[in-house]
Amino acid sequence: GENVEQHPSTLSVQEGDSAVIKCTYSDSASNYFPWYKQELGKGPQLIIDIRSNVGEKKDQRIAVTLNKTAKHFSLHITETQPEDSAVYFCAARVGSARQLTFGSGTQLTVLP
Amino acid sequence: EAQVTQNPRYLITVTGKKLTVTCSQNMNHEYMSWYRQDPGLGLRQIYYSMNVEVTDKGDVPEGYKVSRKEKRNFPLILESPSPNQTSLYFCASTTGERGYTFGSGTRLTVV
Questions:
Q1: For residue A97, what pLDDT is reported?
Q2: For residue B22, what are the CA distances in angstroms to A106, B86, B105?
Q3: Which of A36, A91, A104 sits opposite B41 (nearest CB)?
Q4: CA distance A23 to chain B (A)
Q5: Which residue in chain A is spatially nearest to B44 when comparing CA positions?
Q6: Pick from A42, A43, A49: CB nearest B98
Q7: Are B9 and B106 in contact (CB under 8 A)?
Q8: DSSP B43-64
Q9: Which chain A residue's Cα is nearest to B57?
């Protein structure tokens, strides 16, 4: 089955700096890659997603890039703010299946 | 408001005492799923359901049961809970077009 690896497990950045979280996937049939943000005491929330026919997608300060050849995708957060502090999960979905396979998560801390 | 509702939010129980965690969604989603979240292990799928009366095992189904008698409800049943089932549990649903909508979580402690 699909396997998703996520790095780093923890990341600390100064407010205003950029943060990058990287994920790799194993199944070349994966075609949908969402990113989730989980704040303390809450369930994960979808923040951005990308499909395999697109190389990059941006939404304000958040962007996701996908390299299908290398089977990796990344989340980029620019101009980080304290409210960006949370756990971030990447995920991948194979073909027409509805199941998502998740990475192990990244604890992002934005230092004021 | 479109949402997935789990109950209870917190539960402390003793080994072997049967319990049920309820999950309900109001978005008419066909697909529902249960995950457990443990430190360093991310989100691991327990069971999922493609539609009413259709359920299947995920990656870590041992010790759990589910049922899907109605489209909106997908309860998670622990017939004989053990301490290794102490975890944070999430229910999620989707149409399949985009990612999941998650509930707020149930923190279960088995002593």
A1: 75
A2: 28, 17, 11
A3: A104
A4: 13
A5: A102
A6: A49
A7: yes
A8: EEEEEEEEETTEEEE-S--TT-
A9: A99
Alpha-carbon distance of B11 to A70, in angstroms, equals 43
Q: 């066909």: which residue's tokens?
A: B30
In eight-state DSSP terms, residue A93 is: E
The tens place of each residue's pLDDT in chain A, 112 residues long, gives: 889 999 999 999 999 999 999 999 999 999 999 999 999 989 999 999 999 888 999 999 999 999 999 999 999 999 999 999 999 999 999 887 778 999 999 999 999 9
Which residue is it, tokens 């489209």?
B71
- Measure A34 CA to nearest chain B CA, in Å: 6
Give every CB contact of residue B86 below 8 A, 6+ residues apart in sequence.
B108, B109, B110
Whether A50 and chain B come into contact, CB under 8 Å, resolves to no
Is the distance from CB of B86 to CB of B110 less than 8 angstroms?
yes
